[in-house]
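Lecture notes, unit on protein representations.

Consider one protein chain, 265 amino acids long.
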Amino acid sequence: MLKMISLFCFMLVAGLAKAQYEPMRKIEVKISEWQTRQALIYTPTPTVAGERFPLLIAFHGRSVAGKDLSVIYKEGVPKQLKEGKLIEAVNPVDGKLYKFIVLAPMAQSWSFAPQDVGMMLDDVIRRYPVDTTRIYLTGYSAGGWSVEAAKTHSPELAARIAACITMSPANLDPDYLKRFKLVADADIHTWYFVGTKDDYFRQNIKGFMDSTAKYKQGLTKLTMYPGAHCCWSSFFTPKYKENGKNIYEWLLQYQKKYAVKPRKK
């Protein structure tokens, strides 16, 4: 009898822990050979054997950093999932429906350094059915910094990224501001969002767009909205569209020509 009660209590606690983060679930994701970080992940259910899905990594802002994973639902793509919205879209190029794997890693402070992102990708690709021709990054505020730093970190990392959504990003270190040729060479398209009253972050985006255009035209798109450092959920929702496309439809237009395998350990 005591064993049955203990088993029931264990199952109840396990069930509550799982339900706490639904519709995503808690995992540990590698950022180096010896370090992991907490993350939430959402994986669609395959409809055919061997099906692979686009991967969207969603980086949070500084106010979310810490140890409480539930705070990730405060903003961004995870908030959309928590509200019951489907992160899927019809690709305007091929007319097919794509469902996204969404990874939302939690940094202990600020957001994620670019050297963390490559290892993170390797880990997720090994464990989940990722279409490696469709790896997308998004982030707001400090998370926007993570996106821009990843794009400009190295040729190897830039080559893995198909397109990005960057909202109100913090500025890059001077060395990274000189590396936007990597973005041009890798043909990474980015849709930027920033408030009209968000002067500092608006200047950051201008610098990123100008640095990209120096090497290649047509890789950037800008949406400016009334307001300051806020309101990102208004654009992460699938209901928001410009020129007939929401951000998920827009991302799916862009795809790498070759699949990238995870690096060997």
